[in-house]
């Protein structure tokens, strides 16, 4: 993963990753589609990668992958169905990771998988083998697509080493909280997966009354479906906001590079890690105080993002918040 400050050309937006390009194109196509269903979705190009990888594993003697390889081979002739593609991705990762005991993310969110699929065509999950940096993830956050990372070996996520299955479930955890925040931006409240604070102030997704983890996406399915047009308009505003802010920060790179990098990190914390919808009124609300900066400082101190983020950015977070507020209010336009 690139450092959040690792951009060579100070005066142009970096080229979008393949995943970002697909997410953007898919958002536009579904926005213009009059149908309620997703229809054929040939954009799910990752399926071909699964076909190659499953066939290679089966050819190497792991016969567990033979049925999956056959399913992948049939997908183009079976209508290029969205739900089938995402299930293929999940099933491939589960086979790759079959030797590991399910981890905490699986316990929290695996039961949400079918409800997450049912959010389509308003919200689409896009499995991807591509490694995305923070700018990529910010740009995807401003679309109707939510990326589900596919990995074949243990990978860092949220300050810990995740098995391939845990990495996938970790990303689904992000999906459900982003859905919740997007609905909140549309004036709709659904339950929080985290319960009330306990005696120590801690919060958990585990419901003591049922002994299971709280699921929240079932309540979002109809709420999103009846607000499809409003959600599409919200994502258009989000795209405009993120593009404008990233372009403004790039213009600061040469003379105030560390502050600009800290500003991108702040945006990432607010919009990806904390899931808030990247539109001006919400960003202003979240940036008005030091709460997110304090959280970032804590994460940097314990190397939450590993080598992807320079810990020295902690010294520039206050200036970064001011820079973002100025860009949001059009008080500056970069240098």
Structure overview:
It is a single chain. With 335 residues, the chain is mainly α. It has one domain (18-190, 208-328). Helices cover 53% and strands 6% of the residues. It is built from 14 helices and six strands. The chain has helices at 18-32, 46-59, 65-74, 82-96, 104-109, 113-117, 134-141, 164-185, 218-225, 228-251, 253-273, 280-287, 291-301, 317-328, and strands spanning 124-128, 145-149, 155-157, 160-162, 206-207, 212-213. Strands 1-2 form a two-stranded parallel sheet. A two-stranded antiparallel ribbon has the order 3-4. A hairpin with a 4-residue loop joins strand 5 (206-207) and strand 6 (212-213). Helix 1 packs parallel to helix 7 (134-141). The chain is globular and about 60 Å long. The chain starts with 17 loop residues before the first helix and ends in a 7-residue tail after the last helix. Mean pLDDT is 91; it is low at 1-12.
Report the principal-axis shape.
globular
How do the strands of the widest beta sheet line up side by side?
Answer: 1-2
Biggest sheet, open or closed, and with what strands and sense?
2 strands, parallel
Number of helices: 14
| Average of the residue pLDDT scores | 91
Number of strands: 6
């Amino acid at each position: 993963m690139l450092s959040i400050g690792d951009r060579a050309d100070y005066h142009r937006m970096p080229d979008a990753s393949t995943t970002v390009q697909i997410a953007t194109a898919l958002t536009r196509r579904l926005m213009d589609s009059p149908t309620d269903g997703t229809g054929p979705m040939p954009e799910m190009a990752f399926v071909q990668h699964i076909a190659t990888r499953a066939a290679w594993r089966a050819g190497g003697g792991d016969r567990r992958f033979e049925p999956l390889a056959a399913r992948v081979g049939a997908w183009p002739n079976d209508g290029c169905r969205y739900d089938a593609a995402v299930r293929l991705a999940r099933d491939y990762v589960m086979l790759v990771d079959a030797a590991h005991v399910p981890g905490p993310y699986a316990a929290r969110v695996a039961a949400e998988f079918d409800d997450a699929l049912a959010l389509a065509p308003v919200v689409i999950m896009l499995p991807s083998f591509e490694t995305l940096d923070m700018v990529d993830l910010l740009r995807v956050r401003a679309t109707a697509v939510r990326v589900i990372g596919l990995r074949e070996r243990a990978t860092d996520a949220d300050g810990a080493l995740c098995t391939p299955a845990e990495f996938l479930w970790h990303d689904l955890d992000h999906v459900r909280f982003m859905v919740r925040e997007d609905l909140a931006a549309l004036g709709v409240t659904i339950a929080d997966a985290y319960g009330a604070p306990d005696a120590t102030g801690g919060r958990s997704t585990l419901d003591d009354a049922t002994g299971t983890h709280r699921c929240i996406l079932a309540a979002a399915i109809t709420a999103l479906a009846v607000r499809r047009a409003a959600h599409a308009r919200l994502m258009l505003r989000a795209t405009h906001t993120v593009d404008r802010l990233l372009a403004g920060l790039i213009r600061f790179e040469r003379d105030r590079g560390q502050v600009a990098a800290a500003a991108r990190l702040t945006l990432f914390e607010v919009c990806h890690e904390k899931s808030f919808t990247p539109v001006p009124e919400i960003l202003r609300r979240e940036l008005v105080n030091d709460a997110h900066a304090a959280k970032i400082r804590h994460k940097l101190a314990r190397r939450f993002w590993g080598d992807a983020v320079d810990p020295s950015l902690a010294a520039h977070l206050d200036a970064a918040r001011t820079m973002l507020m100025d860009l949001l209010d059009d008080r500056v336009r970069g240098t």
